[in-house]
Amino acid sequence: MTTRAGFVALIGEPNAGKSTLLNRMVGAKVSIVTHKVQTTRARIRGVAMEGEAQIVFVDTPGLFRPRRRLDRAMVAAAWSGAADADVVVLLIEAHRGLTEGVQAILDGLKDRADGRRIALAINKIDRVEAPVLLKLTEEMNAAFPFEETFMISAEKGYGVEDLRAWLAGALPEGPWLYPEDQIADLPMRMIAAEITREKLTLRLHQELPYQLTVETEAWEERKDGSARIDQIIYVARDGHKGIVLGKKGETIKAVSTAARAELEAFLDHRVHLFLQVKVRPGWLEEAERYSEMGLDFKDGA
Questions:
Q1: pLDDT value for 13
Q2: Which of 13, 34, 65, 82 is least enclosed, having the fewest CB within 10 Å?
Q3: What is the CATH number of the domain that holds 199?
Q4: What range defines the domain where residue 271 resides?
Protein backbone atom coordinates (compact mmCIF):
# COMPACT_ATOMS: atom_id res chain seq x y z
CA MET A 1 0.00 0.00 0.00
CA THR A 2 1.48 3.34 -1.08
CA THR A 3 0.43 6.16 1.21
CA ARG A 4 0.70 9.86 0.45
CA ALA A 5 0.64 12.86 2.77
CA GLY A 6 1.33 16.56 2.53
CA PHE A 7 0.19 20.11 3.08
CA VAL A 8 -2.21 22.02 0.84
CA ALA A 9 -2.48 25.80 1.27
CA LEU A 10 -5.75 27.47 0.31
CA ILE A 11 -5.06 31.09 -0.58
CA GLY A 12 -7.17 33.91 -1.94
CA GLU A 13 -8.81 37.23 -1.16
CA PRO A 14 -10.91 37.63 1.99
CA ASN A 15 -14.34 36.03 1.61
CA ALA A 16 -13.34 33.92 -1.42
CA GLY A 17 -14.74 30.87 0.37
CA LYS A 18 -11.57 29.27 1.75
CA SER A 19 -13.04 28.38 5.13
CA THR A 20 -16.19 26.96 3.51
CA LEU A 21 -14.05 24.84 1.17
CA LEU A 22 -11.87 23.61 4.05
CA ASN A 23 -14.93 22.60 6.07
CA ARG A 24 -16.45 20.86 3.00
CA MET A 25 -13.21 18.97 2.29
CA VAL A 26 -12.73 17.84 5.88
CA GLY A 27 -16.42 17.11 6.47
CA ALA A 28 -16.55 19.00 9.76
CA LYS A 29 -16.45 22.58 10.90
CA VAL A 30 -12.84 23.44 11.74
CA SER A 31 -12.67 27.00 10.45
CA ILE A 32 -15.10 29.80 11.19
CA VAL A 33 -17.30 30.94 8.34
CA THR A 34 -18.99 34.34 8.38
CA HIS A 35 -20.00 36.92 5.83
CA LYS A 36 -17.47 39.34 7.28
CA VAL A 37 -14.08 39.55 5.58
CA GLN A 38 -10.83 38.66 7.36
CA THR A 39 -12.45 36.34 9.92
CA THR A 40 -9.78 33.64 9.64
CA ARG A 41 -6.81 34.81 11.66
CA ALA A 42 -4.77 31.71 12.32
CA ARG A 43 -3.55 29.10 9.85
CA ILE A 44 -6.04 26.39 10.73
CA ARG A 45 -5.13 22.92 9.58
CA GLY A 46 -7.90 20.52 8.68
CA VAL A 47 -7.12 16.90 7.81
CA ALA A 48 -8.98 15.02 5.05
CA MET A 49 -8.55 11.40 3.98
CA GLU A 50 -8.87 10.53 0.29
CA GLY A 51 -8.12 6.88 -0.47
CA GLU A 52 -4.59 6.22 0.78
CA ALA A 53 -3.73 9.93 0.89
CA GLN A 54 -3.88 12.26 3.86
CA ILE A 55 -4.44 15.87 2.83
CA VAL A 56 -3.53 18.44 5.48
CA PHE A 57 -5.18 21.75 4.65
CA VAL A 58 -3.74 25.08 5.71
CA ASP A 59 -6.58 27.63 5.70
CA THR A 60 -4.81 30.96 5.47
CA PRO A 61 -6.12 34.41 6.31
CA GLY A 62 -7.33 36.25 3.19
CA LEU A 63 -4.67 38.17 1.32
CA PHE A 64 -5.32 41.91 1.22
CA ARG A 65 -3.45 45.20 1.56
CA PRO A 66 -2.47 45.41 5.25
CA ARG A 67 -2.87 48.62 7.23
CA ARG A 68 -2.40 47.69 10.89
CA ARG A 69 -0.10 45.36 12.81
CA LEU A 70 -2.79 42.65 13.01
CA ASP A 71 -3.39 42.95 9.24
CA ARG A 72 0.34 42.62 8.51
CA ALA A 73 0.66 39.57 10.79
CA MET A 74 -2.33 37.93 9.04
CA VAL A 75 -0.91 38.53 5.55
CA ALA A 76 2.51 37.23 6.66
CA ALA A 77 0.78 34.10 8.03
CA ALA A 78 -1.00 33.58 4.70
CA TRP A 79 2.19 33.73 2.61
CA SER A 80 4.02 31.61 5.19
CA GLY A 81 1.27 28.98 4.87
CA ALA A 82 1.74 28.95 1.11
CA ALA A 83 5.52 28.68 1.46
CA ASP A 84 5.24 25.66 3.77
CA ALA A 85 2.82 23.76 1.51
CA ASP A 86 3.41 21.00 -1.06
CA VAL A 87 0.46 22.20 -3.15
CA VAL A 88 -1.16 25.64 -3.35
CA VAL A 89 -4.76 26.22 -4.42
CA LEU A 90 -5.72 29.78 -5.38
CA LEU A 91 -9.43 30.29 -4.78
CA ILE A 92 -11.21 33.10 -6.62
CA GLU A 93 -14.87 34.10 -6.87
CA ALA A 94 -16.45 33.47 -10.28
CA HIS A 95 -18.63 36.60 -10.20
CA ARG A 96 -15.74 38.89 -9.21
CA GLY A 97 -13.16 37.52 -11.64
CA LEU A 98 -9.62 38.81 -12.00
CA THR A 99 -9.70 41.67 -9.51
CA GLU A 100 -6.82 43.94 -8.49
CA GLY A 101 -6.46 41.84 -5.35
CA VAL A 102 -6.28 38.59 -7.32
CA GLN A 103 -3.68 40.15 -9.65
CA ALA A 104 -1.59 41.12 -6.59
CA ILE A 105 -1.78 37.49 -5.35
CA LEU A 106 -0.71 36.22 -8.81
CA ASP A 107 2.29 38.59 -8.68
CA GLY A 108 3.13 37.21 -5.23
CA LEU A 109 2.81 33.63 -6.49
CA LYS A 110 5.23 34.32 -9.37
CA ASP A 111 7.85 35.38 -6.80
CA ARG A 112 7.16 32.37 -4.56
CA ALA A 113 6.31 29.50 -6.97
CA ASP A 114 9.61 27.59 -6.37
CA GLY A 115 8.49 24.67 -8.56
CA ARG A 116 5.52 24.08 -6.24
CA ARG A 117 2.33 22.59 -7.73
CA ILE A 118 -0.27 25.35 -8.01
CA ALA A 119 -3.92 24.89 -9.01
CA LEU A 120 -6.77 27.33 -9.57
CA ALA A 121 -10.23 26.81 -8.09
CA ILE A 122 -12.97 29.10 -9.37
CA ASN A 123 -15.59 29.20 -6.62
CA LYS A 124 -19.29 30.19 -6.57
CA ILE A 125 -19.77 29.01 -10.16
CA ASP A 126 -23.54 28.95 -9.66
CA ARG A 127 -23.49 32.76 -9.74
CA VAL A 128 -22.41 33.15 -13.38
CA GLU A 129 -23.24 31.78 -16.83
CA ALA A 130 -21.01 29.24 -18.63
CA PRO A 131 -19.53 31.71 -21.21
CA VAL A 132 -18.38 34.00 -18.35
CA LEU A 133 -16.70 31.03 -16.63
CA LEU A 134 -14.86 29.98 -19.79
CA LYS A 135 -13.63 33.53 -20.42
CA LEU A 136 -12.42 33.83 -16.82
CA THR A 137 -10.65 30.45 -17.05
CA GLU A 138 -8.76 31.60 -20.16
CA GLU A 139 -7.92 34.96 -18.59
CA MET A 140 -6.58 33.41 -15.37
CA ASN A 141 -4.49 30.77 -17.16
CA ALA A 142 -3.03 33.43 -19.44
CA ALA A 143 -2.03 35.41 -16.32
CA PHE A 144 -0.43 32.41 -14.55
CA PRO A 145 0.56 28.85 -15.61
CA PHE A 146 -1.76 26.87 -13.31
CA GLU A 147 -1.27 23.11 -13.38
CA GLU A 148 -5.02 22.47 -13.18
CA THR A 149 -8.23 24.53 -13.06
CA PHE A 150 -11.30 23.44 -11.11
CA MET A 151 -14.77 24.95 -11.18
CA ILE A 152 -16.48 24.50 -7.84
CA SER A 153 -19.13 25.63 -5.41
CA ALA A 154 -17.66 25.15 -1.93
CA GLU A 155 -21.05 25.89 -0.37
CA LYS A 156 -23.04 23.42 -2.47
CA GLY A 157 -20.26 20.87 -3.00
CA TYR A 158 -20.09 21.00 -6.82
CA GLY A 159 -16.67 19.98 -8.15
CA VAL A 160 -15.16 19.54 -4.68
CA GLU A 161 -14.69 15.75 -5.05
CA ASP A 162 -12.68 16.26 -8.27
CA LEU A 163 -10.45 18.81 -6.58
CA ARG A 164 -9.89 16.56 -3.56
CA ALA A 165 -9.05 13.56 -5.79
CA TRP A 166 -6.50 15.61 -7.74
CA LEU A 167 -4.92 16.94 -4.55
CA ALA A 168 -4.59 13.39 -3.18
CA GLY A 169 -2.62 12.35 -6.27
CA ALA A 170 -0.49 15.51 -6.25
CA LEU A 171 0.91 14.94 -2.75
CA PRO A 172 4.29 13.27 -2.20
CA GLU A 173 4.51 9.62 -1.21
CA GLY A 174 5.13 9.12 2.48
CA PRO A 175 3.60 8.11 5.83
CA TRP A 176 0.53 9.91 7.18
CA LEU A 177 1.26 12.89 9.38
CA TYR A 178 -1.70 12.53 11.77
CA PRO A 179 -3.85 9.72 13.19
CA GLU A 180 -6.51 8.65 10.68
CA ASP A 181 -9.44 9.95 12.75
CA GLN A 182 -7.97 13.38 13.53
CA ILE A 183 -9.60 16.29 11.67
CA ALA A 184 -7.63 19.28 12.96
CA ASP A 185 -4.32 19.99 14.67
CA LEU A 186 -5.57 23.19 16.26
CA PRO A 187 -5.81 22.93 20.07
CA MET A 188 -9.43 22.54 21.25
CA ARG A 189 -9.05 25.70 23.36
CA MET A 190 -8.40 27.69 20.20
CA ILE A 191 -11.24 26.03 18.27
CA ALA A 192 -13.59 26.89 21.17
CA ALA A 193 -12.43 30.52 21.11
CA GLU A 194 -12.94 30.66 17.33
CA ILE A 195 -16.50 29.33 17.69
CA THR A 196 -17.37 32.08 20.20
CA ARG A 197 -15.70 34.72 18.03
CA GLU A 198 -17.76 33.57 15.05
CA LYS A 199 -20.99 33.97 17.05
CA LEU A 200 -19.91 37.47 18.11
CA THR A 201 -19.08 38.41 14.53
CA LEU A 202 -22.44 37.16 13.25
CA ARG A 203 -24.35 38.86 16.06
CA LEU A 204 -22.59 42.23 15.97
CA HIS A 205 -22.22 42.62 12.18
CA GLN A 206 -20.72 46.07 11.45
CA GLU A 207 -20.82 47.36 15.03
CA LEU A 208 -17.52 45.89 16.13
CA PRO A 209 -15.37 44.97 13.12
CA TYR A 210 -12.06 43.50 14.30
CA GLN A 211 -11.50 45.18 17.62
CA LEU A 212 -12.12 42.07 19.69
CA THR A 213 -10.53 38.71 20.33
CA VAL A 214 -11.58 35.68 22.37
CA GLU A 215 -9.33 33.56 24.55
CA THR A 216 -10.13 30.32 26.36
CA GLU A 217 -8.83 30.97 29.85
CA ALA A 218 -9.74 27.68 31.53
CA TRP A 219 -11.07 24.25 30.51
CA GLU A 220 -12.17 21.73 33.11
CA GLU A 221 -13.39 18.24 32.27
CA ARG A 222 -15.90 17.26 34.99
CA LYS A 223 -16.63 13.84 36.51
CA ASP A 224 -20.14 13.80 35.02
CA GLY A 225 -18.63 13.96 31.49
CA SER A 226 -19.40 17.64 30.94
CA ALA A 227 -16.86 20.43 30.51
CA ARG A 228 -16.64 23.89 32.05
CA ILE A 229 -15.11 26.40 29.63
CA ASP A 230 -14.18 29.93 30.75
CA GLN A 231 -13.49 32.49 28.03
CA ILE A 232 -12.49 36.14 28.00
CA ILE A 233 -13.61 38.51 25.26
CA TYR A 234 -11.06 41.32 24.97
CA VAL A 235 -12.25 44.61 23.50
CA ALA A 236 -10.25 47.76 22.81
CA ARG A 237 -12.60 50.39 24.29
CA ASP A 238 -15.13 50.85 27.10
CA GLY A 239 -17.85 51.62 24.54
CA HIS A 240 -17.23 48.24 22.91
CA LYS A 241 -17.90 46.41 26.17
CA GLY A 242 -21.46 47.76 26.23
CA ILE A 243 -22.00 46.67 22.62
CA VAL A 244 -20.82 43.12 23.37
CA LEU A 245 -22.94 42.86 26.50
CA GLY A 246 -26.02 44.38 24.84
CA LYS A 247 -29.13 45.77 26.49
CA LYS A 248 -29.66 43.95 29.82
CA GLY A 249 -26.95 41.48 28.72
CA GLU A 250 -29.06 40.18 25.82
CA THR A 251 -26.23 40.08 23.26
CA ILE A 252 -23.71 38.20 25.40
CA LYS A 253 -26.47 35.79 26.48
CA ALA A 254 -27.42 35.02 22.86
CA VAL A 255 -23.75 34.62 21.87
CA SER A 256 -23.12 32.29 24.82
CA THR A 257 -26.17 30.15 24.00
CA ALA A 258 -25.22 29.82 20.31
CA ALA A 259 -21.54 29.10 21.06
CA ARG A 260 -22.43 26.53 23.76
CA ALA A 261 -24.80 24.68 21.40
CA GLU A 262 -22.13 24.44 18.71
CA LEU A 263 -19.45 23.39 21.19
CA GLU A 264 -21.71 20.63 22.53
CA ALA A 265 -22.34 19.37 19.01
CA PHE A 266 -18.60 19.51 18.22
CA LEU A 267 -17.47 17.82 21.45
CA ASP A 268 -20.46 15.49 21.74
CA HIS A 269 -20.94 16.22 25.45
CA ARG A 270 -22.45 18.86 27.72
CA VAL A 271 -20.71 22.23 28.03
CA HIS A 272 -20.99 24.94 30.67
CA LEU A 273 -19.70 28.10 28.99
CA PHE A 274 -18.82 31.23 30.97
CA LEU A 275 -18.00 34.45 29.09
CA GLN A 276 -16.38 37.57 30.53
CA VAL A 277 -15.79 40.85 28.71
CA LYS A 278 -12.62 42.79 29.55
CA VAL A 279 -11.39 46.11 28.19
CA ARG A 280 -7.73 46.07 27.10
CA PRO A 281 -7.06 49.24 25.09
CA GLY A 282 -3.73 47.97 23.71
CA TRP A 283 -4.54 44.32 22.98
CA LEU A 284 -3.75 44.82 19.28
CA GLU A 285 -0.16 45.58 20.32
CA GLU A 286 0.31 42.70 22.79
CA ALA A 287 2.50 39.79 21.68
CA GLU A 288 0.61 37.37 23.95
CA ARG A 289 -2.71 38.00 22.16
CA TYR A 290 -1.08 37.17 18.80
CA SER A 291 0.29 33.89 20.16
CA GLU A 292 -3.23 32.94 21.29
CA MET A 293 -4.43 33.54 17.70
CA GLY A 294 -1.60 31.46 16.21
CA LEU A 295 0.03 34.53 14.65
CA ASP A 296 3.56 35.89 14.95
CA PHE A 297 3.65 39.31 16.64
CA LYS A 298 6.93 40.17 14.88
CA ASP A 299 5.33 39.66 11.45
CA GLY A 300 3.11 42.67 12.10
CA ALA A 301 6.02 45.05 12.65
A1: 82
A2: 65
A3: 3.30.300.20
A4: 188-300
